[in-house]
Structures are given as structure tokens and as C-alpha cells.
Amino acid sequence: MKRFYISNRLFAEPSFVEGMARVLDIGGTLQRYNTEHDPDAIAIKNDWRAVGDDLKSSIGLYEQRVAKAI
After folding, report:
1. pLDDT, tens digit, for every residue of 13-66?
2. Contacts of 34 (CB under 8 A, 6+ apart)
3. What torsion, rounded to 10 degrees, do the Cα atoms 33, 27, 15, 34 define?
4. How far apart are CA 24 and CA 52, in angstroms?
């Protein structure tokens, strides 16, 4: 079972109206970013979870191939 991880947590996701308002926002006062508890650590954690899942899947496939060869 393949898991999918969300990697866009650090970016602002404005609505259509907010996007239109940003055209007139010269000072950049409308920019709001996700500032949850240490977002970099959360992103790294998700990256390593994805690597771990890929390794687990690869090891499982390798074990199946070795079992068939024996």
C-alpha cells in the first residue's frame, strides 16, 4: 500500500479573491504562511517517512523474488 505525503504545507494557498487582491498589494501585507510548530521539521519527517516506505516496499519485493528463485 503506497502512502502519499502532503508536501505543500509551507506555502500560502490563497483563494481566487485573495489572489486578485495580491495584485494591488504593493507592500506584501496579505502574505500569510503556515507557521505551525516547526514546519521544517515536519517536512523533513514526512520526507523520511516516504523514504522508509519506499525502502520497505523494495525490500518486500526483493524478498518475494528471492523466495521464488529458491
Report:
1. 678 888 788 888 888 777 766 666 677 787 788 889 989 999 999 999 999 999
2. 9, 10, 11, 12
3. 0
4. 45
Closest CA to 34 of 13, 61, 59: 13
Rounded to whole angstroms, how far apart are CA atoms 36 and 27? 24
Q: Which residue is listed with cell 510548530? A: 37
Distance CA(43)–CA(6), nearest Å, equals 9
CA 27 and chain centroid, separation:
29
